[in-house]
Amino acid sequence: MGVIRKTKAVEVLLKEFNTNSVAISAKALIEQLGDTFNKTTIYRVLDKLEDDGILHSFLGKEGLKWYAKCNGCTSTEHNDVHPHFQCLSCGRVDCLTFTVPLPKIPNRKIEVTQLLIQGKCEECFV
Amino acid sequence: MGVIRKTKAVEVLLKEFNTNSVAISAKALIEQLGDTFNKTTIYRVLDKLEDDGILHSFLGKEGLKWYAKCNGCTSTEHNDVHPHFQCLSCGRVDCLTFTVPLPKIPNRKIEVTQLLIQGKCEECFV
DNA sequence: AATATAACGCAACCTTGTTGCATTAACAAA
DNA sequence: TTTGTTAATGCAACAAGGTTGCGTTATATT
After folding, report:
1. Which element (helix H / strand E) includes A64?
2. How do the pLDDT tens digits run along chain A, 126 residues long?
3. Is the minimum CB–CB distance between B71 and chain A shorter than 8 Å?
4. pTM, whole model, 2 decimals?
5. Nearest nucleotide, C1' to the C-alpha of A45?
6. Does A1 reach chain B within 8 Å, measured CB to CB?
7. Interface confidence: ipTM more than 0.90
8. What is the spatial distance between Cα A65 and Cα B54, in angstroms, rounded to a whole number?
9. A63, A115, A119 member nearest B115 (Cβ)
């Protein structure tokens, strides 16, 4: 498990996530880069970058898969489980930096939490 | 907007949600009832029951749409935004009764929150 | 430069969910 | 209880996001 070859697709996709500090959906990436790279390639590179702990993914509104850069994750563990914010006006999604304290639930083991907050972002908020 | 006719499909689907106190995915309902009712019908009835404030929906793992009974919702407002718990062992999903306090986010307006917690449920937890 | 094989492109496919339209059935009124 | 209106249904075809198999290309190693 590892990105072993620095291909064009890997390079271009990584640049996307480095220049934009927001999350990007696979769909948007395909719309944007689909002429340059096959969608299969894009999906596979995203998968691999996630495996390697470089990107993390989550589900946005309507079940679309979004990706964003990781902070301090390794290929063995994704440890930046944080909320995501999706603007209902402009559609933009980004990562929030705080963590939400959850109450202990008796007899259950929490492994993953996915918190998606929807509303109006800074730019769309009047 | 309202369920104006008590049809077989409405009756059977409502019974599903009344006898099981857990959430059920549209997919599971189609697998279970697809011989009796057309999947289109099932999707439409679920839609309508949600419009009427009888069911609420949310996205589970893998972007599947899940439905569960509402508590005190009306056709104009779904006000039971609560976390959902999905067991990674048995796949079962249910509604949690607590609410999670979110920190205020400056310059943003929170409208909806979707919190999906994944882990081991009471039965699968050792 | 030769070579092994990861990565790619393409086409075909899968799944969840939606739409248009003709037919059926729920329910109110006669 | 028959009739008439129209909501609800079934069917087929479609839509969109994503996946798979396989032959070809290109990266990195020797």
Report:
1. none
2. 455 799 999 999 999 999 877 899 999 999 999 999 999 999 999 999 999 989 999 998 889 999 998 776 666 665 567 899 999 888 899 888 888 888 888 889 888 889 999 999 988 987
3. no
4. 0.88
5. C7
6. no
7. no
8. 29
9. A115
